[in-house]
């Protein structure tokens, strides 16, 4: 992997963040997208396609990270096995057609489960939590979503609607949460971390959440953990020409290649 020398940001802070540019073109292999890595130990950001990394877009299902914490913190749910009962609707995704635990709903990215959590927490509390986190534009004005999905409970402000966040802001929010700079309890953060685990080797663990749109938009955000040190990442794909083949799993696969190369 080719990368430029890091250069410090010029400001008056005692410790200024540093920035570097990554060449990940061989990994992205023609897919339009971006990647940002953040090393909190050295306060260093590494970018691939920095302009896109700074553009605010819909978080899609990566917002389930926040939904989970909000539900736990407000005692709508209590742990990984907190169950919400199925209402009998036949959803296109078979895994959603049944009673679901938090862990299963998170890992199958079940919208109706988290729609119920969000509604139970309420707009005022969600707005407050987003503002504390500086979560993108913090705009939940389109609470019920834009209605593009004919199934009412499969819409929401985080799904191609009013709420937007950049990949850069994603890693900053994740860092606040997992570096214990947020208002969420250690217990609830530990529950979230447990259900975010997607890949584990002898030397490294990868935690994350996918997100998928319908026009070639896809996310994978989270962090890697190696020898007790974290590196946060956000990979965002935006390639309408390849929309039939791009989804959150595509972004996750690219991330696993990137983190392996970076190791």
From TrEMBL:
GO MF annotation terms: beta-lactamase activity; penicillin binding
Penicillin-binding protein transpeptidase domain sequence ranges: 38-253
A GO CC annotation given for this chain: plasma membrane
Keywords assigned by UniProt, alphabetized: Antibiotic resistance, Hydrolase, Signal
Enzyme class: hydrolase
EC number, UniProt record: 3.5.2.6
Catalyzed chemical reaction(s): a beta-lactam + H2O = a substituted beta-amino acid
Protein name: beta-lactamase
Keyword NADP: no
Family membership noted in the UniProt record: Belongs to the class-D beta-lactamase family.
Origin species: Blautia pseudococcoides
């Amino acid at each position: 992997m080719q990368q430029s020398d890091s250069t410090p940001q010029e400001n008056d802070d005692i410790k200024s963040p540093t920035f570097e540019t990554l060449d990940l073109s061989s990994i992205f292999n023609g897919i339009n997208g971006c990647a940002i890595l953040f090393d909190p130990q050295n306060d260093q950001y590494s970018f691939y396609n920095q302009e896109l990394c700074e553009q605010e877009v819909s978080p899609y299902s990566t917002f389930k990270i926040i939904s989970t914490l909000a539900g736990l913190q407000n005692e709508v749910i209590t742990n990984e096995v907190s169950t919400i009962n199925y209402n009998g609707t036949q959803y296109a995704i078979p895994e959603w057609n049944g009673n679901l635990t938090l862990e299963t709903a998170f890992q199958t990215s079940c919208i109706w489960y988290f729609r119920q959590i969000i509604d139970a927490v309420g707009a005022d509390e969600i707005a407050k939590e987003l503002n504390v986190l500086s979560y993108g534009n913090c705009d939940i004005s389109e609470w019920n979503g834009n209605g593009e999905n004919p199934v009412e409970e499969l819409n929401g402000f985080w799904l191609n609607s009013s709420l937007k966040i950049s990949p850069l802001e994603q890693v900053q929010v994740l860092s606040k949460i997992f570096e214990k700079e947020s208002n969420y309890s250690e217990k609830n953060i530990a529950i979230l971390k447990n259900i975010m685990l997607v890949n584990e080797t002898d030397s490294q663990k990868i935690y994350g959440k996918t997100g998928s749109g319908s026009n070639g938009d896809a996310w994978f955000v989270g962090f890697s953990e190696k020898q007790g040190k974290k590196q946060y990442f956000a990979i965002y794909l935006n390639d309408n020409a390849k929309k039939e083949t791009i989804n959150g799993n595509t972004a996750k696969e690219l991330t696993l290649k990137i983190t392996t190369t970076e190791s």
